[in-house]
From TrEMBL:
GO biological process, one term: carboxylic acid metabolic process
Top-rank taxon: Bacteria
Cofactor: pyridoxal 5'-phosphate
Name of the protein in question: L-2,4-diaminobutyrate decarboxylase
Keywords: Decarboxylase, Lyase, Pyridoxal phosphate
N6-(pyridoxal phosphate)lysine carried by residues: K357
Comp. bias regions, Low complexity: 39-50
InterPro entries, alphabetized: PyrdxlP-dep_de-COase, PyrdxlP-dep_Trfase, PyrdxlP-dep_Trfase_major, PyrdxlP-dep_Trfase_small
Gene Ontology terms, MF aspect: aromatic-L-amino-acid decarboxylase activity; pyridoxal phosphate binding
Family (UniProt): Belongs to the group II decarboxylase family.
Length: 547
């Protein structure tokens, strides 16, 4: 069972206010601080219509946070595992019974609403902090990141104009620059991941945009390429491996491009020779087309990384654009020991990079990085009430071209706090620990005669299946474990067969957790087949995973 603890919460939220707030201090220039707006009060004495921001906001939040934390704790204890038992119908019935009317005529008050709804959602959640919740690229967020996200919600900046987000927009610029230099350490003035904040011209040096995740970042990468090709008098044609994320195909459709030309990806990685042949065929068949090649660094099914140096060589020789989807594998760059697995990434024209996967951030925390910020100019857009020309000329930053979205939450704040709290070395330790746990799981599978291992992990995904079992057995076992609330196990269709998938993203996982997972899978397989799949793992008692 994972623990949820917040230390020093009371010290973090001192009572603000003025003469009308007991124990408070006067506001600026001796004026009384603001008083929360009057309205119905919950059982805690907190006015249910109180605002979260302003000088009085923390005082209104404090008792409500106590209710939330209590509900989270109770829900985790009542659930007692990685996900609720009973399947969709049981979860739906419990939730409806607990919540009742979601829009009652008369409200029940803030505390009761929080305790009931947060408690019900926590009770029936799939909790990625539980070691046996390991199906998806769905990470357990760090406590420091979740705490920072509370501040983002309370302050509620919107990053579509400077006058809505004066400080948050500057934080975004700093974080985007730092992460872009991590991806492109040799680009721009003051090159290198340790360059800090070098002075650069408006279009010089690497930069990044904050996105909602890999899907939006991939769409932006394709959009940048489409516009560049159009400016050169060409027409973009997406070329990707059979291993590419589904969002590449969807983005091509949304952008009005032809369906991607799909290149073989034997053993789950893009074949450079097949790519070379495909680009040659495209050039001969359609002289007006300009290839937009999408490679992957960390596939969803197996975590495989395409041979980026060889792909980049082919792309440059053919005069194509290279976008790399490193939504999963990108954070390997934090680690000096692991970043060589991404050699060649720095040769891309654009890179997708997520921190709500192997970065332990609450959703959403995605980025699109480019080696030269001039490439982002195609996103420039004018709306007079947000970025009027005279305001921009007077020095107010133009934020509207930083996204296809208008209203934007300050998701960058939790990232900035996490990076400052842990530093690159701390992030590297978490990445290395997680990848070591995946290697340990793969070693256990390889030693176990009950299972067939697909491959040792490149990042942190382990794919395996039962020896002698068919695809139907793999599917039934996964559903049984879900139904019983025991394990959240993924599935991957690889090379014509169905496999179980464990995506290790919990840096606190222990060897005993890995052994327990394999034991539960084997027992379920035995129950679903004619006989047991074999004996217990010989090293189920191990308590640690060495990095």
């Amino acid at each position: 069972m994972s623990a949820f603890a917040v230390d020093g919460l009371q010290d973090a939220f001192p009572v603000p206010g003025g003469r009308d707030v007991p124990g408070g201090r006067p506001g600026p220039e001796g004026r009384p601080g603001p008083e929360p707006g009057r309205g119905p009060e919950s059982g805690s004495g907190v006015r249910d219509g109180a605002l979260a921001g302003g000088a009085a906001g923390p005082a209104a939040l404090r008792p409500l946070l106590g209710a939330v934390l209590g509900a989270l704790s109770r829900g985790a204890v009542e659930r007692g595992g990685p996900l609720p038992e009973g399947g969709p119908e049981a979860v739906g019935a419990r939730l409806r019974a607990a919540v009742g009317a979601v829009l009652p005529e008369q409200g029940v008050g803030a505390r009761e609403a929080l305790e009931v709804l947060v408690g019900a959602v926590a009770r029936d959640a799939a909790d990625p902090a539980e070691p046996l919740c390991a199906a998806h690229l769905h990470c357990p967020p760090l406590a420091v990141a979740a705490a920072a996200d509370l501040a983002a919600s309370a302050l509620n900046p919107s990053l579509d104009s400077w006058d809505q987000a004066p400080a948050a927009s500057e934080v975004e610029a700093l974080v985007c620059g730092a992460l872009a230099r991590l991806v492109f350490p040799g680009a721009g003035p003051g090159a290198g991941p340790d360059a800090g904040c070098p002075e650069a011209g408006p279009d010089e040096g690497p930069d990044a945009l904050v996105t909602t995740g890999g899907t939006e970042a991939n769409q932006l990468g394709l959009l940048l390429a489409r516009e560049r090709q159009a400016a050169a008098g060409g027409r973009a044609r997406v070329v990707c491996g059979a291993n590419a994320h589904h969002s590449v195909h969807r983005s091509a459709w949304l952008l009005g491009l032809e369906p991607p030309l799909v290149v073989p990806a034997p053993r789950g990685v893009l074949d450079p020779a097949a790519l070379e042949a495909a680009l040659g065929d495209l050039a001969r068949a359609d002289a007006g087309a300009r290839a937009l090649v999408v490679a992957t660094a960390g596939t969803t099914d197996t975590g495989a990384v395409d041979p980026l140096p060889r792909v980049a060589e082919v792309v440059r020789r053919r005069g194509a654009w290279l976008h790399v989807d490193a939504a999963y594998g990108g954070p390997l760059l934090f680690s000096a020991a692991l970043r060589q697995r991404l050699v060649g990434l720095e040769q891309a024209d654009s890179v997708t990079f997520d921190l709500h996967k192997l970065g332990w951030q609450p959703v959403a925390a995605g980025f699109l990085a480019v080696p030269e910020r001039a490439a982002l100019r195609v996103l420039d857009h004018r709306a007079d009430y947000l970025n009027a020309d005279d305001d921009t000329e007077a020095g107010l930053p133009d934020l509207l071209g930083r996204s296809l979205r208008t209203t934007r939450r300050p998701d960058v704040l939790k990232v900035a706090v996490t990076l400052r709290a842990l530093g690159r070395a701390g992030m590297a330790r978490l990445v290395e620990r997680t990848c070591a746990a995946a290697r340990e799981l793969a070693d256990r599978v390889a030693r176990d005669e009950r299972f067939e291992l697909y491959a040792h992990p490149t990042v942190s995904t382990v794919v395996f299946r039962p020896v002698g079992g068919d695809d139907a057995l793999v599917a039934r076992v996964r559903r049984q474990l879900l139904e019983h609330g025991q394990v959240v196990l993924g599935r991957a269709a690889v090379e014509g067969r169905l496999w179980w998938k464990v995506t290790v993203l919990n840096p606190a996982v222990r060897g005993s957790d890995l052994a327990a997972l394999l034991k539960l899978v084997a027992e379920a397989a035995g129950a679903q087949s004619a006989g047991p799949v074999g004996g217990d793992s010989s090293d189920a008692a191990d308590e640690g995973v060495e990095a």
